Structure formats: C-alpha cells, structure tokens
Amino acid sequence: MVINGSHDRVACEAVATEVEQAGAQTVVAMGGVGSRASFDHLIQVAQDTFGSVEF
Question: CA-CA distance, 37 to 7, in Å (whole number)?
Fold first, then answer.
C-alpha cells in the first residue's frame, strides 16, 4: 500500500507502521497529487516498490 501525503511525513509514517502491523507492505511517498510531477513521482515509487499500480 502506498501511503501518500503532501505535508506531514511523520503522520504518514505512523499510518504506514499501523498498516504494516496489520500485515501489509507499505511505502510512504510524499507529494500532492494536484501536481503532475508529484503524481508521476508517486506512481514511480509504487512501481519501484510493488512492480505495478492498481487504482
């Protein structure tokens, strides 16, 4: 699961920790999805980590 946020990395890391404790693999990718460059970065992080993206 990709945890995304645009401002509060600490909060995103906390969510990632909770999700991982439930048994899922996570990655935190910071950036606002309103920006094409940030969106592209988010997708790249997801692909690099998980190999594919599902919406």
Answer: 16
Determine whether 8 is exposed, middle or buried from the number of CB atoms within 10 Å of its CB (0-12, 13-18, 19+).
exposed
- Report pLDDT digits (tens) over 29-49: 999 889 999 999 999 999 999
Backbone angles phi, psi at 48, to 5 degrees: -65, -35
Q: Are 14 and 6 in contact (CB under 8 A)?
A: no
pTM: 0.82
* 24 in Cβ contact with 49 (< 8 Å): no
